[in-house]
Amino acid sequence: xxxxxxxxxxxxxxxxxxxAELGISERVLRYKTNKYKIRPGK
Length: 42
Prior knowledge:
single chain
């Protein structure tokens, strides 16, 4: 989950860019942020 937090921080909370950086779909990123209660902001 730390990878998701770091990617979101690097992209200023932009989920589309963070998902692309991580090599996953935006849908999967949204699912994981909701499941693990990760806020997409800084």
